[in-house]
Amino acid sequence: MDAELAAMRAELSDLRAAQQKLAARLQEAEDYRDLMNLQCAYGYYVDKGMWDEAADLFAENGTLEIAGRGVYVGRERARAYLKCLPAYGHGVLFNHMQLQPVIHVDSKAGTAKARWRTFITIGWLGKEGRWGEATYENEYVRENGKWRIAKLHGVINFYAEYDKGWHKGGVPLLRSIDGLEPDLPPSFEYEAYPEPVITPFHFDEP
Amino acid sequence: MDAELAAMRAELSDLRAAQQKLAARLQEAEDYRDLMNLQCAYGYYVDKGMWDEAADLFAENGTLEIAGRGVYVGRERARAYLKCLPAYGHGVLFNHMQLQPVIHVDSKAGTAKARWRTFITIGWLGKEGRWGEATYENEYVRENGKWRIAKLHGVINFYAEYDKGWHKGGVPLLRSIDGLEPDLPPSFEYEAYPEPVITPFHFDEP
Amino acid sequence: MDAELAAMRAELSDLRAAQQKLAARLQEAEDYRDLMNLQCAYGYYVDKGMWDEAADLFAENGTLEIAGRGVYVGRERARAYLKCLPAYGHGVLFNHMQLQPVIHVDSKAGTAKARWRTFITIGWLGKEGRWGEATYENEYVRENGKWRIAKLHGVINFYAEYDKGWHKGGVPLLRSIDGLEPDLPPSFEYEAYPEPVITPFHFDEP
């Protein structure tokens, strides 16, 4: 009897430990899904000039760096940057489609990294139509139980005029945004197409 | 002995309850994956004029509403609508790429909602080439153990002629499909680019 | 007492069996995520001429078949094929965006199948700009604990010159790659747009 009880105690202990491991693994699966939802939602907000909604997806100390314009540090600075972008309205197209995620989560630490890309169709009626594409190497953090963007780093691969196409020349990066100096210089210097640019990978192995 | 048995009974009970919670959370992770597969499969069928395969992904009472043409209620009406679309064949391109999902599942209820987008390349050799992009706000239901589309609602953001680009003008919505009156009027009235249009979000928070 | 112990033994046994089933289901959810990461990483490598990194994602006996050029059998042959592709550098754009996955995993067998698509923007400054789109029907295998590409099969739906658009004619498939004969003939013969082509589906039901 004592031996049987001891065996059952041991088995209960094993089951409990195994269950905790399953729960930790399940947390990673859930976090992966939540991170997908987060980045895709960001894109939908940016498309339509919903700058507050987009900014609210940043962590309190999140950073934003786009198109070689330097780093904006903190959610409110990300918000200020986003509010410098063109307003959405009649004749405006500002689509930044989000796709191709490679996501690595450390659920225990509450952090994650992901490589994404955005395929861009922008335009102003009667003025300008443009294609673009960029690579993101982003970081995320779980803050107050919700995943937030800790670092949004978008590196432009190309901008091209609709009327010409990339093979007739890329549109050079505009290195600043009107009226809003960055908090830190760019992470690295680069020029977009026709110059080659490879955004450093957060992983050696998918 | 009695105290020990009582403790073990209690622990078994806790393990069982915890396991049920894990199973419920795991169901959500599986449903997320199945919903991704479902919507992506829909896109592949639509590309190639596989209208029956596409219609079969609808729930019995599923609804379809695309491009402001009104609502078609029930799988067989969705099938009738799809069969009014251009046949696939020589010279035809009808790609509706599916991407950027924000998916929320209620596995217990067997329902889900998702925001998707489609990036469109269509054309007829010698006649017409066109770009397009639309937002979906869809609903899904688990029917006979399989996820099905309960509501497909596609809102066109823009159509543009390949030869011109969106900045030279959008292609207005054709508000009806030949020979097939809708069952209900459109959910909301809108015009595509150059008019601004923001498809209402099913979520406040990703 | 004996009856109680017997009941508890039975319950422990049930919990253990149920936990193993949960673990198996969780493995499938993790495999799904890893397969997403794998294919998306492949695309990022191909964009930037990182042929060794791309080839290293193939299983030892993996096969590669793209654009009707025949089948290359084995990782080193896939590597040889990839190294025949244009070098990345100044003026080069070679984006093969990866999207729209329908993934089915057999975790127990360590195999998987997925339908993906790629939307392609390629170009050489001053020479050529081109759009393309292809369907993949791929297979994967778990090798040494990591998912690898067992079969990469990319079927071109269209290539079109940027300056013309698909409606003015598709770019025919180049049926061979300079200096590297395939190991097996193409899986099936086809021509891209304007000819219709439907890549066979690995699934009847998503």
Automatic annotation (TrEMBL), chains A, B, C:
Keywords: Coiled coil. Residues 27-152 form the SnoaL-like domain. InterPro entries: NTF2-like_dom_sf, SnoaL-like. The keyword Metal-binding does not apply. The keyword Coiled coil applies. Signal peptide: none annotated. Gene3D superfamilies: 3.10.450.50. Residues 5-35 form a coiled coil. This is Nuclear transport factor 2 family protein. It comes from Altericroceibacterium indicum. The lineage of its organism: Bacteria, Pseudomonadati, Pseudomonadota, Alphaproteobacteria, Sphingomonadales.
